[in-house]
Design a protein that fits this description.
single chain, alpha/beta, six-stranded mixed beta sheet, 29% helix, 31% strand, globular, binds glutamine
Length: 245
Amino acid sequence: MELKICHLFPDVLNLYGDRGNVTCMQHRLQWRGIDVSVQGVSIGQSLRAADYDLFFIGGGQDFEQGVLLKDLVGDKTAQIKSAVEDGKTFLAICGGYQMLGTYYKTWDGDQCDFIGALDLYTIGVKERMIGNYLFTCDDLDGQTVVGFENHSGKTYLGSGVKPMGKVLVGNGNNGEDGMEGARYKNVFCTYSHGCLLPKNPALADHILKTALEHKYGRAELEPLDDAIENSAHDYMERRLRAHGK
Ligand code: GLN
């Protein structure tokens, strides 16, 4: 078995070490003897979405998102949309999450028209939503995910897009409706930056299994020793429940 990972805009969208999620997926596959390749596709490079099984898009500030707008128009948008509709697996974080939606209106009034692969939109507010947070994950039967968020955008989901789960501590999508992230077909979107997957190994494996099953029909992942990863998760969960940060 083999997974081909496409890291979109690795040099532009990489806040808080978002690329660590790619390293994590790579290692969790290799530890099980599954082949993996990672290819970056950035500004000015053409994207052949059919060449990949799993796409990763990290976060970026409003500035970086603005820089990408021109590059996204046309073929890249079409490739990404068809990959989403074909059931390819995506993990998109924060700015990357917003980019899969229809538009982002920044707090100072700039309108960024995005890919529109998912029926969701984002409105920026001046006061940012920052901090460690905790949410449940519907795909993991309500298991908790610990994360870190830092965004000005408030995201609202349209019909046909489900949240990833419910916020227990923190803001999530907008700090209003109690939802976090977005799920559509095999697309996973979240506001959680940085070492999301290393400290939430069950989510990492769920995403890998989704991509492998889409490609091969069936995939069982051998369990790994996640004692250290789970203790990092559990420590943050206890801290967030006790102190809210
Ligand atoms: N620019 C977006 C916002 O502030 C995304 C930020 C991010 O990716 N951290 O909402």
